[in-house]
């Protein structure tokens, strides 16, 4: 029934996220003994860079109408392309645009769509993807299976590692000029969003805190440790969304920032799956919590069971002393 569907496609309007999707897509394509295709809109990146990161071919849609993202034109173009080539799997970056685009593409192709998937594996018969996603505020992980094809999933940034660029890889770049209906909306103006806080995704050291910090004024002890380590501050979702103590750009988790620092210090964070998903690529995780049964300890490299109000000043002083020596 599904024999006509073959190949793994990846698409994102964020080139770095496309590289990450290619890393996972390469694994799936090898397991299925099929081709991996990068679908690229516009000409911002050298198409060969996607081949170097694992793609067997690149479908380059260079129509000027697609230069600026508009959901109706992108949906029409990719739906026509997928209807013609019939890929088995389509992985889409869970950017703001991707989350708007993916379900529309799925509806157009009369298939399903699992959003913000945190893990993908193939079933024992290699016919379907098993897609894990977090629900109920991070308290439940549910597994989705799409019984229709193509199988579509959106993937957040930072979950999968891109493959190293291989200059020797060979692949096919196919330039496509799709027939696109004019957009139903007109883009009048584009404004850059004024970013608040710090760029967590680029930080080598992050000191993060959760509800273990009792009041806003106590953030000072987090700042002191972060300054001593030469890091930046992050937080769990409730701190930003419920309490409003830090900008939303600084909360870390599945629906927030995904980080990969060399050192991640979690202070007073219990470690729900929603948060753990955002820090899974950290090289070293240090957890400080007064609850010895906190889930964060099972995920960390080093754990300290202590009151953060007592241990953080001592740790800050120790770091400063090491720097003086």
Description of the molecule:
With 325 residues, this protein is α/β, with parallel strands linked by helices. 30% of the residues lie in helices and 23% in strands. The strands form three sheets. The chain has a seven-stranded parallel β-sheet with strand order 5-9-4-1-2-3-10, sandwiched between helices. Strands 12-11-13-14-15 form a five-stranded parallel β-sheet. Helix 3 crosses helix 4 (96-109) and helix 5 (219-229) runs parallel beside helix 9 (308-324). The chain is elongated. The termini are far apart.
* SS field, number of helical segments: 9
Question: Quick one: overall form?
Answer: elongated
Mean pLDDT: 88
Biggest sheet descriptor:
7 strands, parallel
Multimeric state: single chain
Rg to the nearest angstrom? 22 Å
Give the topology string: H per helix, E per strand: EHEHEHEHEEEEEEEHEHEHEHEH
Number of strands: 15
Gist of the model:
The chain is of the alpha/beta class and 325 residues long. The chain has nine helices and 15 strands.
Task: Sum up the structure in keywords.
seven-stranded parallel β-sheet; five-stranded parallel β-sheet
Describe the protein's topology:
Elements: E1 8-11, H1 15-32, E2 36-41, H2 47-52, E3 57-61, H3 71-85, E4 89-93, H4 96-109, E5 113-114, E6 117-122, E7 129-135, E8 140-144, E9 151-155, E10 172-176, E11 205-209, H5 219-229, E12 232-235, H6 237-241, E13 263-267, H7 273-279, E14 284-289, H8 296-299, E15 302-305, H9 308-324
Parallel strand pairs: 1-2, 1-4, 2-3, 3-10, 4-9, 5-9, 11-12, 11-13, 13-14, 14-15
Antiparallel strand pairs: 6-7, 7-8
Helix pairs in contact: 3-4, 5-9
């Amino acid at each position: 029934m599904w024999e006509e569907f073959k190949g793994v496609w990846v698409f994102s309007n964020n080139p770095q996220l496309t590289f990450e999707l290619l890393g996972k897509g390469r694994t799936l394509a090898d397991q299925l003994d099929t081709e991996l295709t990068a679908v690229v809109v516009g000409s911002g990146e050298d198409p060969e860079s996607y081949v170097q990161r694992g793609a067997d071919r690149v479908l380059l849609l260079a129509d000027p109408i697609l230069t600026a993202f508009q959901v109706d034109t992108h949906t029409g173009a990719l739906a026509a392309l997928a209807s013609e080539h019939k890929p088995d799997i389509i992985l889409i970056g869970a950017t703001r645009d991707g989350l708007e685009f993916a379900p529309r593409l799925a509806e157009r192709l009369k298939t399903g769509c699992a959003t913000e998937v945190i893990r993908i594996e193939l079933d024992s018969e290699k016919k379907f993807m098993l897609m894990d996603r977090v629900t109920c505020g991070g308290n439940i992980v549910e597994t989705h299976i799409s019984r229709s094809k193509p199988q579509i999933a959106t993937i957040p940034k930072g979950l999968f590692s891109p493959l190293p660029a291989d200059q020797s890889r060979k692949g096919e770049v196919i330039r496509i000029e799709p027939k696109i209906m004019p957009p139903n909306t007109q883009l009048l103006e584009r404004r850059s969003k004024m970013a608040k806080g710090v760029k967590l995704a680029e930080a080598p050291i992050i000191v993060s805190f959760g509800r273990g910090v009792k009041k806003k004024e106590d953030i000072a002890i987090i700042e002191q440790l972060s300054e001593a380590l030469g890091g930046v501050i992050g937080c769990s979702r409730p701190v930003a969304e419920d309490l409003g103590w830090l900008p939303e750009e600084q909360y870390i988790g599945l629906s927030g920032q995904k980080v990969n620092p060399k050192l991640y210090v979690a202070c007073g964070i219990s470690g729900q799956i929603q948060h753990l998903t955002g820090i899974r690529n950290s090289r070293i995780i240090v957890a400080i919590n007064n609850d010895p049964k906190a889930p964060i300890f099972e995920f960390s490299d080093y754990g300290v069971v202590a009151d953060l109000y007592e241990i953080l000043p001592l740790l800050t002083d120790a770091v400063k002393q090491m720097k003086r020596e």
